[in-house]
Amino acid sequence: MPSRVAVLLAVAAVAALAVGSGGFSAVSADRQVRVDVVGDADAYMSLTYPDAGVSLDGATVEDTFLTVRNQFTQPVDFTVTYTVSTGDGLDGTPTSDSVTRRSVGVGEEFDVPIAVRCGASGTQYATVSFDVTADGADVFAETTDARSVEYVVDCPSVTVRFEGNGDAQVDGLSGLAGTKATVWTLESGELTAHEVDVAAGGENVRPAVGGNETIVAVTLDATDRTYVHPDLRRTDDGFVVQPAGEGDQLGSNDPADPVCPGAVDPADLAPTDDGLTCPR
């Protein structure tokens, strides 16, 4: 349940000081007063945010972590400064930012959203910490302590599998339908990148790419990962797809290996005795 909290205000009165339920009384221009405002109706800088953990699911999700409302008796400029802390399996977008809304009218409010993107499957966690200031002609207010919102994100498992016929498919996430992707194909030792939209949930990547070249790598924007054909090798004559050892076969539905963070050009993969690995 979201809770509307009243913040402790540091009010610098230039010609007047907000008191009570919104009235003003004259004070000297340089007087510093701290006012503890309680109750929804009497909160001057009203902040609404979840007071319990927020559960989300999906590869890329957005949520409003804060709503700010002006309950002064004059327009004010609001600034929300926030940071997003995540584990390795989750990315916040952006990781920190400062959002300013100028001349917010009396009784008006605005939302501050956050986007998180899964980089690994399973349960992932994020914390949004924020501070707020309000600056008007006669008033200044700020939060005295950083507030925070906790997120628990259920990240689905995403698998890219490379088939023996040179095709590839994305499994495990119907929400990826239509996601932007870079698909790398191989022909005569040369790699070619294709910027396409791909589907998921067992859908073949081939229709988005066309042609009959072997698909050897897929970068998905939604997961910010590059999935590489496990049998891709680099030779003196360019790239080839071949089994890792004698007796091995190019199997059907081989899962990607390696899976690299970010958008990686397969040409930048580092060679090893067993194939290729992600660049450091």
CATH class of the largest domain: Mainly Beta
DSSP helix fraction? under 10%
What sequence of helices (H) and strands (E) makes up the elements? Answer: EEEEEEEEEEEEEEEEEEEEHEEEEEEEE
Structural class of the secondary structure composition? mainly beta
Give me the Rg, rounded.
Answer: 27 Å
Mean pLDDT: 78
Q: Count of DSSP helices? A: 1
Based on the coordinates given, report the CATH architecture of the largest domain.
Answer: Sandwich
The strand count comes to 28
Our measurement of the CA-to-CA distance between the termini, rounded to an integer number of angstroms, reads 44 Å
The low-confidence runs, each spanning 5 or more residues with pLDDT under 50, are 3-42, 246-251
Number of domains: 2
Q: Indicate the CATH topology of the largest domain.
A: Immunoglobulin-like
Can you tell me the overall shape? elongated
Relative strand content: over 45%
For the sheet with most strands, the description reads:
6 strands, mixed
Can you give a write-up of this model?
By secondary structure, the chain is mainly β. The chain has two domains: 2-155, Immunoglobulin-like, CATH 2.60.40; 159-277, no CATH class. The protein has one helix and 28 strands. The protein has one helix at 206-209, and strands at 2-6, 8-12, 17-19, 23-25, 32-36, 45-50, 54-57, 60-70, 76-86, 90-93, 96-104, 109-118, 122-136, 140-142, 147-155, 159-162, 168-171, 179-187, 190-198, 203-204, 214-220, 225-228, 232-235, 238-241, 254-255, 259-261, 270-272, 275-277. The strands form eight sheets. Strands 7, 9, 11, 13, 14 and 15 form a six-stranded mixed beta sheet that branches. Strands 1-6-8-12-10 form a five-stranded antiparallel beta sheet, with no helix packed on it.
